[in-house]
Amino acid sequence: MNIEKFKREHADLLAAVTALRELVQTGVQEHADKILAQLVGMSSVIKLHLAAEDRVLYPALMSAGDPLVAETGKRFQEEMGDLAQAYAGFVSRWNLASRISQDPEGFRNDANNVFKALHLRVQRENRELYPLAEQV
């Protein structure tokens, strides 16, 4: 299976998270509008990536002849639901620049938790899941 598009999306996502962190570090209140714009842009990319994984990647892995590959695909898909839900909740809580600027510490803490989990997930997919997908 050719997963180059998934890999590129991971790299783009990590770059977007880095850009968001830079905005946060230079001042949440001062950059609330830019932070919100970054979140909105990232959210659409993340939603499209997750939808592609659900429609293409996970079904291909789960229908693989190798039981280990099939089980790994199923496990990763099930685990993703929790992270997707956490990210959606994060975006819902911080969907206005005024909310971000009124609670910079709350935003910073929430963002750190969500993006740390997202980063770990991307790393696990790159290290464990994608090598299996390339064999399918």
Automatic annotation (TrEMBL):
A family per Pfam: Hemerythrin
Source organism, top-level taxon: Bacteria
Gene3D superfamilies the record matches: nmb1532 protein domain like
Hemerythrin-like domain ranges (all copies): 3-133
Protein name per UniProt: Hemerythrin domain-containing protein
Organism of this sequence: Dyella mobilis
